[in-house]
């Protein structure tokens, strides 16, 4: 889906916001587009989730601005003017402007931290979802042994670039190799193969983890 159409569809769901165009574009490019599903039937739900997140972000921003304005109104005290002193038509407002600038800078900084935290949280959720989908594909291909799956899945890295199918393919290859190392040797056919007794599971797992460390495959 093109960026302009994606932005239009998302704005249609979010409605009017106080977010700047730069913030909107950054969110679209770094949080929405990299994880856009390839399946057409999943795009609608995916965009809706981001629309809800943007509404929440906009609501938080408006709330913070309102709080800042109310705090300023409560703390601001006009400077009393001595009636014996000459009236100044254009008093120096630099102090008040500086205070406003500091408040806006602080607010912008808080907004950037909020956006960064939200983006990192969404990235973590999307990576977890991608790993879960890859696990399902692996299981459909015969990777059914939970002990071996629990050894292999933490080693997979669901990056933005790799697809679910490629991640599952890589995971299945690692699963087959691990299963053969643990239970079958070179004669074992991994997909839809047998298992092992519960009494040997922990020993086999510990031995395999030691093997991975010794060969430098994990730290």
TrEMBL record:
Bias (Basic and acidic residues): 203-219
Segments of this protein annotated with the region Disordered: 77-103, 194-219
Name of the protein described by the UniProt record: Minor structural protein GP20
